[in-house]
Write a structure and sequence with these properties.
The chain is α/β, with parallel strands linked by helices. 27% of the residues lie in helices and 21% in strands. The protein has a single domain (2-189), classed as Spore Coat Polysaccharide Biosynthesis Protein SpsA, Chain A (Alpha-Beta Complex).
């Protein structure tokens, strides 16, 4: 079964330290746009968040703050925490950042179709790899605690030890709101003010 982990636990440094997922975009919090894009594509979903846990929990999905050993270690902390909490029937996990509201409607099926025997399927656009939007085998998470314990923090560094297949997508689906200006551009593209 394919599950998803919505990554909303970042510190939002480029957006002034606010909780990015909670920033308004076209009448609703940013993360809800991502949730709506992911839900039809997966059978199960959880949210990684370190602030506003009650707000994220209103949709009834599990909300997991980073586990103590990995706090402050970025998105890989969310994956390490998820590895210890995923239900056993979830064998593939799609990740998505809370600031990418235009995710392709066929993201998960296309990555799943390309996965084959690889550990991870990763979207690639003309702008380069999209390592926050991975479809990965849950079994591939087994080595993540050791990678973090050794000082590793980079998703790309962790992926270097795994078999990764790349899948080409149009870059528009991965536009993200890293800062206030990017959020305003997304609002304009989506046809409304935040």
């Amino acid at each position: 079964m394919i599950g998803a982990l919505l990554l909303a636990g970042g510190e939002g440094r480029r957006m002034g330290g606010v909780d990015k997922g909670m920033q308004p975009l076209c009448g609703q919090p940013l993360y809800q746009h991502v949730l709506q894009a992911l839900q039809p594509q997966v059978a199960w979903l959880a949210i990684s968040a370190n602030r506003h846990l009650g707000d994220y929990a209103v949709h009834g999905h599990p909300v997991w703050p980073d586990a103590a050993p990995w706090q402050g270690m970025g998105p890989l902390a969310a994956l390490a925490t998820a590895a210890a909490n995923l239900p056993p029937h979830v064998t593939l996990l799609q990740t998505a950042p809370c600031d990418s509201p235009l995710l392709p409607a066929d993201l998960v099926p296309r990555l799943a179709a390309a996965l084959g025997d690889a550990d991870v399927a990763m979207p690639v656009t003309a702008q380069g790899p999209q390592p926050a939007c991975l479809l990965l085998r849950v079994a591939a998470l087994a080595g993540l605690p050791a990678y973090l314990a050794a000082g590793g923090r980079s998703i790309r560094g962790w992926l270097a030890g795994l078999q990764v297949v790349e899948v080409v997508f149009d870059e528009a689906g991965f536009a993200n709101a890293n800062d206030a200006a990017a959020l305003a551009r997304l609002a304009a593209v989506m046809g409304g003010a935040g």
